[in-house]
Structures are given as C-alpha cells and as structure tokens.
Amino acid sequence: MFKKFDEKEDITGATQLKSSVQKGIRKKLLENFPHIEPYLEDILPKKENFKLIKCKDHVELLADHTGVVRFMKTRNTDFVPTLRTLHKYPFLLPHQQVDKGAIKFILNGSAIMCPGLTSPGAKLTATVPKDAVVAIMAEGKEHALAIGQMLMSSEEIQSVNKGYGVENIHYLNDGLWHLAEKSIN
C-alpha cells in the first residue's frame, strides 16, 4: 500500500483537529486498543494538538504535535499504529510470525502466503478473525517487519494452507516508514 508513497505527490492536505474531534479519536483508539490507555498520553498528549493528514486512495495519517506520524487509517481499516509506534508499543496488535524465507518478500511489499505462516519457524496466533490487523513478526527477530490485515481467519489459514493469508499494509522501508521518521509541519 505504501510501496511508492511519496510525501509530495500522495499527501493532499493536513488539518489541525479541533479538541472535540481529537477527543473522539482518542476514545476510538482506546476502544480498539484497550492496552494503550496508560501510554496514550505519551503517544498523543491531551494538552497538545495533533494533525490529520489526508492522502490519496482514502488514506489518513495521524501525526502528533511534533509532526511524527503515529497512526494510519486505510479504506479497509480503522486507525492502526505505524511500525514506528508499534516498535515502541509492541503489545498493541496481535502477532503472526513468518519463517525466515518470507522476510525478503514481505520487505518488497508482497502479501503473506499461508505456507509462510504455517511452516516450521512460523507461529500462527490462534483465534485471530478475518479482517483483523496484525503485526507481522519474523523468525529470530525482535521487532515487527510489517503490519497486515488478515484475509482469512487463523483457523482458515491453518486448514487451507494455500494462497494469501495476510495483506501487507505497511512494512519496513516503505514510503510511510520514511515519512514517519521525519516530522510533517
């Protein structure tokens, strides 16, 4: 999704959000990620304003008061953390682990195949439903290498073991990764 994301071409506008809208977004984040409550003040402080950055293809980015992108929203998802946010707070999303052979493909933006999630070295978290957003971990690595959306439930991936299991939304070194490392003003 963010493979060829370019700050100059893909961002269509940024707006400072009113406090009532910010409050609604914080509430929605707490509903979607109940474990974030003790950390939400660090991520998006109440005393500071944050921005909503609109992009092409119905993508929205949420940047904190310093301009660092913290969350993203696509056409098919609610706000989900960016990889940089996920690396600081890894408990926000359920984890699916791929084997070492899948790493180079995922880092090129490919969807995650079912065999990459069920082979030796992979760990498939049970009871994750279809359309859930998950962190993609790699065998032998500490941090997530991608964020994806389940195309099948965990049980379906285990039983079918063919085709695409997870759509790759955001991965290390894609356009959003590079955008998130600098602040947007």
TrEMBL record:
Molecular-function GO term, any one: RNA binding
Lineage, uppermost ranks: Eukaryota, Metazoa, Ecdysozoa, Nematoda, Chromadorea
Residues of the signal peptide: none
Subcellular localization, as worded in the UniProt entry: Cytoplasm
Protein name per Swiss-Prot or TrEMBL: PUA domain-containing protein
Cellular component terms (Gene Ontology): cytoplasm
GO biological process: formation of translation preinitiation complex; translation reinitiation
Annotated organism of origin: Caenorhabditis auriculariae
Keywords, ordered alphabetically: Cytoplasm
Domain PUA per the UniProt entry, residue ranges: 94-173
Recorded family membership: Belongs to the MCTS1 family.
Principal place of residence: cytoplasm
Matches recorded under Gene3D superfamilies: 3.10.400.20
